[in-house]
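Q: Two folds, back to back.
A: First:
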Amino acid sequence: MPQLHSLEPALKHYFGYDSFRPGQRQIIEQALQNQDLLIIMPTGGGKSLCFQLPALLKPGLTVVVSPLIALMQDQVEALRDNGIGATFLNSSLNSHQVRSREEAILKGKVKLLYVAPERLLSERFLPFLTLVQHEIGISAFAIDEAHCVSEWGHDFRPEYRQLKQLRQRYPGIPTLALTATATARVRQDIIQQLALAKPSIHVASFNRPNLYYEIQPKQKQSYSQLLQLIQAEGSGIVYCLSRRKVNEITLKLQQDGVAALPYHAGLSDEERTENQTRFIRDDVRVMVATIAFGMGINKPDVRFVVHYDLPRSLESYYQESGRAGRDGEPARCTLFFSYGDIKTIEYLIEQKSDPQEQRIARQQLRQVLDYAEGTDCRRTIQLGYFGERFGGNCGNCDNCNYPKPVADCTIEAMKFLSCVARCQERFGMNHIIDVLRGSKNQKILQYNHQKLSTYGIGKDKSAEDWRMLGRSLLHQGLLDQTTDGYSVLKLNALSWEVMRRQRTVFIAVTAAPKPELEDKELRTSEVEILFQRLRLLRKQLADEQSVPPYVVFADSTLKLMAQAQPQTLTEFGKLSGVGSHKLNQYGDKFLAEIKAYCQEHQLPMPTNSVAAIPASGAGSSAIFPSDTQLFTLQLHRQGLSVAEIAQKRNIRPTTIIRHLSDLVEMNQPVDLNQLVPPHRQQKISEALLVVGSHSLNQIREYLGEGYSYDEIRLVRGRWQRENKV
């Protein structure tokens, strides 16, 4: 066996990398010591290397079980490109090719053999495998996409259940099970079903910080919504539930000039392989597919993944959306949410013959709906599903970037959790809500829950209000839920902290708690919707002239329109990016769209709306507040302190200070005197003249510890605005 200190040179020699990614080295060391391993590592984390490098360093053949022909071909091509002896055996080969490859294996020319589980356990193949063991030895079995072994996983495949035979037939050969996604339940199932012996379990973080997650309400003209979303350059995948929808969307995209191809089980193997190859090689930009596409696909530069229909589970959504941004660059994951899609999935669930499978599928659907309707950080919800805690604002999802106002719901949370306790932690969310709202249904009476002290104490709120609270308690880890198909609510240590008034609970609310929060600038979702409508209008005008949309107006100008919502040609002409020619050519059309939108949504007509947004000179980039900065500005102008704004928005005070300093620099109407006394502003300005604005540390050292970084940052914002070249 090679010395462990030689792993880095081996890595460089075989794969060209100078160092391992986090977690890889320890896994490889254990693999070289012939341990059974369970490796949970997100897409793009480098799972394959964890069995490929040990295969090259150990004597004998490593057998890799892979569920898809395309996946094994892709990996084998990559290995061969590195000069590594690898091959696959599957149904795409004729008998002569199979014999030729088997001969190469027996001669020791192959270090990694990829096979599907059906072939591996066939009557013809097992004797060959035994011959291999006798002639050259088998160093390990690597079970890729190991979640397929579990009925609790998102892609259960019955043939994976038979892989336990490997341990019975070859008891001394170590097994490595690898997957990108597995809940605690699925992990336990993998260990049991594959008969792993005291495996070392490695679970990397499931967080993919470069992915932007968002939910968009599925509009009536959903195809137009999709087309608008994928206009930007870059490769992408559009997932649909049915083959019919895949074909329909593909045809429409092709007719609109988007290079797109379909992928689903109704196509021949040759068509699927050809389409996948063209997508990987950038011959086409968009792949429209059912979930049959993409498992383990090695295309690192997918810039967007759109779920045109609801996914069947959160696990499958994480896996499918995770095919975006494997190169670590920013990518967008969008899910179209429509209640109509729920019926389709419910119909598919009803086609399952096993009642337990139906129960599991219904629970998984409920979790998808909780995610889609949730108001908490999307990452908090996703990672919590896999048992990983994620606190705070991720800054890269719709709920964090366009936050809804938050309210103190501690009393309501105490009522909800107390009701769970009174019901002895034996019921699901719907029953708890029925008790709180004083329902007289049969189940309530059957258990005498009408006699509980919590019965009817929540009549003042709707069932949906309570459901939103219950979801948020789950997402924040203040309440647990069983995962055996029954979704029973369970209390935890944090639940009791809430009930003892030791913990405050803040919940995002869909309606603002105070009337003044209804101002237009706070309606970040409305701003985004208007922005999309203006993009559609721009596209229509551009098509009429056969020019790219940016020739009409840049995105930055459209965003200014959506934020300022000008009502006259004079106001419109003040926007950055609107010259006199464009004012004459497009002004009336865009004003009409903005006015129509304001009337449809009964928004108050803005006054002096453009004045607060600075114009930019020719050739400079437009600098304007983001929606989250505008939210902070509005609360500041209501007289709230930094601490009060932070509490109301449920984000850190330092983030609010950054918003305000940026707003000051952008010449927004921030009352600096409210934040820093004038005499202290004067001292900080003098320090800036001496030290410069580059380093906050140097400024504070000059001033002394009596001055805070927050004060310095705010005054520096004004100083930088006034001293720009």
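A: Second:
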Amino acid sequence: MKFIRFSVLAAGVMAALASASAAEIGLTIEAATPGPVISKYVYGQFAEHLGTGIYGGLWVGPESRIPNTRGWRNDVVGALKALRVPLVRWPGGCFADQYHWRDGIGPRAARPVRVNTNWGGVEEYNSVGTHEFFELVEQLGADAYVNGNVGTGSPQEMAEWVEYMTADGKSSLATLRAANGHPAPFKLAFFGIGNEAWGCGGNMSVGHYADEYSRYATFLHPGGGNKTQFIAAGGHDDDTSWSEHLSARLRTGRFDGVSFHYYTSPGPDADGKYGATGFGEAQWISTLSNTRRMDDFITNNAAKMDLHDQHKRLSFAVDEWGTWYDAEAGSRSGFLVQQNSLRDAMVAALNFNIFHAHADRVRMTSIAQMVNVLQAMIRTDGDKMVLTPTYHAFRMYVPFQDATSVPVKLEHNPQYAFGGLAIPAVSASAARGKDGQLYLALVNTNPGERADVAVDVAGGRAGSASGTVLTAAAMDAHNTYAAPAAVKPAPYEARAEGGKLLLKLPPKSIVVVAVR
């Protein structure tokens, strides 16, 4: 057999590893057949003006007792930097189509107060505006994805915002930006023209939105050397009409991708039925089964885009995805606060593997959301902070950023079944990292059985594997301020014996390793 070691493991995991050997799954990595590059932007984040997703969770202001750098929390920013966050989407979401950028410039004390009618009806003091946002992405070392206002804005307002952010020279808006503290143009990597035009962005038909997109895009002229990518507001769930219509119709020269939104829930909308914790195996498998629908959604939308964009110039940008459960008991209405468990980390890893498999089209995504909202990386309460299992999944997958995908083939992969649902027991993805290493990511969806995976590298050898494993004793295990390390990665190592590299995956686990 082979040598396998974990430095930190729960007693339940040790018992699983000591159990009788599971049926062996064969996995072949076609390392000599490189595929498309997995863009680093697949690991993007989303920060909307929603609840404490920004205010309190990220922004505390320069005068706060919580340690900060120009208003942004040092602890949260420091933790996010470890994820190598490549992109942040802002200011929404639904908030974007009611946001007027001039509200968020100039002295903070003089900025107007608005009502955030989308999220809780709270007062929006506009303390975080354009300059503050770009300060955040600069601290993170990330790129900016700004979403413009089609719903309540105008082409002139949007064009002036793009000019304000990017113009160099002596235009009045470039001069105004300099007077507000930033003489140089901002780097604007992505710009979204509206959001969810089919819903909160204006309840438009796809044909009407296509006309609006073309009108708005005509007047957008980024300066300052920016090569901004423009993203159209696309569809959601199993609706492919937006991808098909927009890819067929838009010919503005400022059209680089179609967005797509899909949120994973255990079942249909039904408040009070689907908590983020306290669930059983029926909701475990239904959640994982539902999140695997992302693969079909991407496949079906990509097929429609292929009809009009055979060379795959356009990106399919999944710029809102993640889990959506009932709000946490006692939380404020409209703040979308939910706990984050091992199940959420599994959802993240399954989606990563799906995105990798579609790297030719999926070149940017942003999970909803960064802090305190929906499937967050981090939760905060005053000066307290805790990292979620989803945070750890993102960190484990860092080597896949800008890596070159390579095909994997699974053989004898059993089904994990419960309560009338069945999904593949193991999900896998492999890539050649920028450092030259061959990386393999594996997810064992079965919460009760170990999976044994025999790894073969076609045309090469698989002598050892080292990396990390994420698992826990309970399906809903999660981190709290009192127990912040209840779910965290542990080292994982395996060595081949007799020419075979066998990776033993604990029940309900994520394993990411370098294969040598």
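Q: And?
A: Residues 220 and 338 are 38 Å apart (CA to CA).
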